[in-house]
Amino acid sequence: MDDRELDIPLNASGNINVHQDTFLTKTAGPMDPSYSEYDFSHPRRGIAVIVVNNQIEGHKEKRTGSEKDMTFFQHMFTAYGFEIRTFFNKKSQDLLKELHNISKEDHSENDCFALAISTHGEGVIERNTSREDVIYTTDQTIKVRYLLELFTDEKCPTLKGKPRIVFIQACRGEELDDGVTVHLSTSTSVQNADEEDMTDLSSYTAQKQVVQQASDDADALPSIAAIHRHGPGRHNFTVQPKPTLVSQQVRQTQVYSYSGYTQEEVYVVPAPCYDDFLVMYATPPGYFAFRRTTEGSWFIKNLAEVLLQPGRRSLLRELTRVIRKVSQNMESKNSDKKYDAKKQSPVIYSKLIKDIYLTPKNGSEY
User: Fold this and answer.
1) What is the DSSP letter of 242?
2) Cβ–Cβ under 8 Å, residues 219 and 122
3) Less Cβ around it within 10 Å: N or C end of the chain?
4) H helix count then E strand count, the chain
């Protein structure tokens, strides 16, 4: 067969012309901003969904301080030009319907999507084999996985290739972090409060400003081995029983020996994270997340303080600052010694493939 029958462009010498535009196309390189940054030049920044619950059916005590979280979220997203949709004290089916409708909207002209949640939460064990994070609506729980799946490429195709940013303030279990003493080269002041710190685990209730264990702890997370190395506090190393039944879906890792303790296996189910998602939780799997009644949640307060600072900055770098501020500067105060002088460290799960740089949008201001 003659090469000309394949419609391959040849030069005068009869050789393939490799410089023909029909053969070579330029791709973004390291010097091209589109190579390393998500495109934030669309007409609109995008939708930011805020979900806050301060009342759970069957629980007398409200999540005092959650209104502060709402205010922090609103200021933060307004500063970056988001269109804000707020859902306060929604029932599960109503919330899922609202989020489903938003996922079906056309996001083609938006830069990104954001979801921010402040409510009670737990880490539950299903059929003694797998662990799932759940959040509470006013009437029942919803798996975090279900909320995130609504905005995946498959369920929300007009967000494909665009970042989806999620912040979750909720407990993920009943473990408490004692922290470990670290000598820092710079001075760091621990922010003890005049008030007592509350938690966002629904099976615990506040009575007379003291966190006490509720009688219903059926959804409590089995203990795991853990070493904590962040923030000023106390040395803590515990090796506790592992779950007796573990499915093949559960990831197995190890904690190595420390101060004479032998290594123990730890079983962890990875938290859901999908393409172009960044999910930031207030606390690691299995642990409490703290909230102050007059200042709001530790995590949300520090998140807003960092992100509301002016200047063009990398989102991931700024979120790392949030982790440092919470883990080093915050410490619980409670008249019940079990919950006093405890620590907390937010965690990030990311499948972003480019940087996000924080700038105002269309005249919005900090």
Assistant:
1) P
2) yes
3) N
4) 6, 20
